[in-house]
Amino acid sequence: RAVPGVESAAAVAYLPLTEYYSYMGATIELDASHKVSPAMWDYATSDYFRTMGTPMFEGREFADSDRPGSERVAIVNREFAAKLGIGPHLVGKSVSVRYGSDRRSYTIVGVAPSALIRGPGGVPSAQMFLPVGQTHPGFVTFVAHVRGAMAPYLVVCRDAVQQVDRQVPVYDVKTLDQRLSDMLARPRFYTTA
Question: CA nearest 49: which of 58, 67, 62, 40?
Fold first, then answer.
């Protein structure tokens, strides 16, 4: 965020247009008659949706105050709300995530638009985000929204991460346009062959 020209920066575990994505093997329920299973599971920092250019449909993004010891919160997408069958107005409601006998409750603080995670040929999936500050995922992908052309920032942003910790591996540094092009390469090949 301190790099000149970077307008916003954040981190997320699973970036859109990624081949691999995590599905929760849990049942998520608002009450006995409103359940979602399975759902895509992701972790994000504050400013993630703003950085990705995705305005919240309702409520707020995660904040730096969403830390261990504070109320457990979640953001869901509109597809998640639709699968619950009660409409999009979920902010302030509590959902329970159950793995066998383990049950945890989260207060929904935001509803995000549904994204085509697997690209233009995909369909929206129910998705639930938890704040990185409360969950500590094993890995994250950094994202940045920059002023002007993106290409010069790829090296600058990679170097900024390495300055914090040279042991952190930084790889697969690309713009979202490059990721979309990579994802469409195989379908494009088959339609021209």
Answer: 62
Structure tokens at 56: 């919240």
Q: Two tokens at 141?
A: 């992908």
Per DSSP (E only), the strands in 15-113 are 23-24, 27-31, 34-36, 39-44, 58-59, 73-77, 94-99, 102-112
Neighbours of 151 (CB within 10 A): 10
What does the block give as tokens for 71? 């109320």
The DSSP bridge pattern shows strands 58-59 and 39-44 to be unpaired
Nearest to 100 by CA among 190, 189, 26, 6: 26
73 forms beta bridges with 107
The per-residue pLDDT for range 49-94, each reduced to its tens digit, is: 999 988 999 999 999 999 999 999 999 998 888 887 776 678 999 8
**Exposed, middle or buried by CB within 10 Å (0-12, 13-18, 19+), for 139?**
exposed
